[in-house]
Design a protein that fits this description.
The chain has 95 residues and is mainly β. It has one helix and three strands; from the N terminus they run αβββ. The two termini are 28 Å apart.
Length: 95
Amino acid sequence: MCTCKQDTEARLLEALPAELPEGFKGLSARLTGYAMFFGGNQAQFKQVMPIEVTYQAPTKAGVMKDKKKSMSMLANFCMFCGEKYDKDEPKASAA
């Protein structure tokens, strides 16, 4: 599994001080949009894109009402290096 998340966060910590005012304190940088997954004997982070869906649906009275729904889309490949997240996992067998 790639280390792009950790590597990018480290590079941000190196680059950001040049963009901040003199005398700043307590710098931290964390890439958001990741979820931790557990499988076998390891945990790994995968990129997750939040999605907001809006639509209109009929009510019982027959009028249309605005609705919102939130969901997430899970990436199969790292957006930085293109490595497949599950490349080392065994294929699921069809029973």
